[in-house]
Structure formats: C-alpha cells, structure tokens
User: Fold this.
Amino acid sequence: MTYFQYKKYIAAALAEVSGEYAAYEAEKATCHLFGLDRRALSLAMREEAPDKIKEAENIIARRKSGEPLAYILGNADFFGLNLYVTAACLTPRADTEVIVERALDFLGGRSANVLDICTGSGCIALAIAENSRADVLGLDISPDALDIARKNAEKCGLAGKVRFEMCDALSAEFEGRAEKYDLIVSNPPYIPTGDIAALSAEVHCEPMLALDGGEDGLIFYRRFIEILPHKLKEGGAIIFEIGYDQENALRALCACAGLPCEIFRDYGGNVRGAVIKP
Ligand code: GLN
Assistant:
C-alpha cells in the first residue's frame, strides 16, 4: 500500500466516528504510523509504505471505541505547539485557543507574570509563554497532569518561562498565598455533574476531575470571583473559559460581586469565555 492508500483507508474507517474530522485525523494517524511530519508525508504520498496495517487497525479500533485521537497518538496540536497528552489531562481543544488569543491581546509586548489555574496538559500556560514576554505559573491538583505539563514545558523549550506546581485552587492554602499577578487565566472544570452522563464517548475517556464543575457547574467560578481579584496587580485581568450556556450565570455572579464582566465567543460562534477587569 502507498502512504496515500493508508491515509485514505484510515479516513474511510474513521468516517463514522470522526465525521468532518476524519480526513484530518487520518492524516495525523498516518504521520504517526510512519514517523513523518505533514510535509514529509505529502512528499511521500505516492510511494510504497512499509507494512503497518496491524498498527493502523489498532488505531482505528481504539478510535472507533470512542477514545480521542490525542490519547491514542499521545500528542495534540494547540496554538502552534505540539503537546504530549495522556488520559491524565483533558485533550487540548481548538475552541480553547481563543482564551490564549484574549490573554495575548491583554498582555501585548510587556513582561508580566501570569497564573494559569487548572492547567492540565499546560496548554494555555505554554501557549501564552511561547507567544509573549510573560512568565507563567501553572497550577493543578493532579500530580499526573503536572507530570505531563512539565514534560510539555521541556518539549517546547519553555521550562525557563513556565513553572508548574501542585495546588488545589479551591483550598484555603491557595486563598492564603500572597503572590499577585498581571493576568490570571483558567479553563476549570465547568460541566454540571448531572450533564456528564450525556456527553460523548470521547469526553467519557477524559478525567472527571477536569470536567465536573459540581452540581451547577459553577463551583470554580464562584470561588474564583471571590478570591482572584485580591490576587491581581493594579490593572490586572482574569480570563476564564466558560460553557456555551453559562453566560447569564457568570454575569449574575460578577454582578453580585460588583465586577465588570465581558463575555466573548469562539470561532464556532459559541459563548466561550469571560474577561473580568476589577
Ligand atoms: N469544553 C469541555 C467540553 O465541552 C469542558 C472543559 C471543561 O470542563 N473545562 O467537554
């Protein structure tokens, strides 16, 4: 089989489970199978490929069972970075890239210190560090996620600009910390507990710890709105990812706390984030 035929075969096999992403995923899987980047694959397309049919079938079977491609391949692209990903962290989502864009717009070219709460794979922290002059601290409660985040900092050559620490953002210990930041970002767990069962097979492979935002999905936002304004330097900002249906809830929480709140959308047109500038 040629490389092209592998890619075509995988795309057809994934059509049902991956829908409009089947061709993209097939390309990623083919690159992974043969250890090629996209450019090398596109140059080799018509050549005969080594026999990797068993490995290809294995990828197809796992993907068809609902496992996200990022977990199968062990990596994912986010904001131009290629990051290690395991089932210990949420798979970086393209929709989350708008959070990074907002953060970079706010920071501009100045040096700054940034806090990323619930960092997971470190994707937001690393994308901000890569594209600004900021130093970033990423926090997470999960030691396994922090392990991946630290490996990602090394992989991206950003270990000098980004540190990761274990910390429970809901704890009194976190509240008591004295450090202040120019910008605080977070993509916390925000799915209401009762909505989790209805989510896709892909999401069910992801850590509950990264998804479950408590009974109404707002546990983290409630706490953040209470304590994060005290952790900002003068002129600082807070940027959160929020769920597509959480605009009114966020506005209400901010109004109660007397905080201005700007809501923004992702490129799919869905509500995706909130900017708070106390
Ligand atoms: N956006 C994710 C999803 O829809 C949820 C991420 C989160 O809870 N932070 O599955």
